[in-house]
């Protein structure tokens, strides 16, 4: 099964140096439309949720005896998930439908990138 989704939450402004993001870009749960696709079945658009947005990440020089770089990378990720079942209309099945399991995040937060 293939799931597609998309949403626009803002746009870039600037020339690379001093660029900044315009729009509501904090990590949060957002409404999206997913298109479910399964071989032999018609695609179906369903309302769902996704984690999208920006989290703080940085690299800084530690000013101790080692003079090492300290990295902190945070990503917008799901915390928990909910399960749902969707019926797709399929050709060739004796019943004519296929029940597909899908998942959506319950909530989102900034967590260490994996």
Number of self-contained structural domains = 1
Number of continuous helical runs: 0
Provide the succession of SSEs: EEEEEEEEE
3D shape: elongated
CATH class: Mainly Beta
According to CATH, the homologous superfamily is: Cystine-knot cytokines
**Overall average pLDDT:** 79
- The fraction of residues assigned to DSSP E strands is over 45%
Class by SSE composition: mainly beta
CATH architecture verdict: Ribbon
Q: Residue ranges: pLDDT <50 for 5 or more in a row?
A: 1-23
Percentage of residues in helical conformation: under 10%
The end-to-end distance, rounded to whole angstroms, is: 24 Å
Q: Biggest sheet: strands, sense, closure?
A: 3 strands, antiparallel
Number of strands: 9
Top keywords for this entry?
114 residues, hormone, mainly beta, Cystine Knot Cytokines, subunit B, signal, 61% strand, disordered N terminus
Description:
By secondary structure, the protein is mainly β. The protein has a single domain (2-6, 24-112), classed as Cystine Knot Cytokines, subunit B, CATH 2.10.90.10. Helix content is 0%, strand content 61%. It has strands spanning 2-4, 10-13, 20-23, 28-37, 44-52, 58-61, 69-72, 74-89, 97-112. The strands form 4 sheets. The protein has a 3-stranded antiparallel β-sheet, with no helix packed on it. Strands 2-3 form a two-stranded antiparallel sheet. A two-stranded antiparallel ribbon has the order 6-7. The protein is elongated and about 70 Å long. It starts with a strand and ends with a strand. It is found in: Secreted. Pfam families: DAN (PF03045). It comes from Priapulus caudatus.
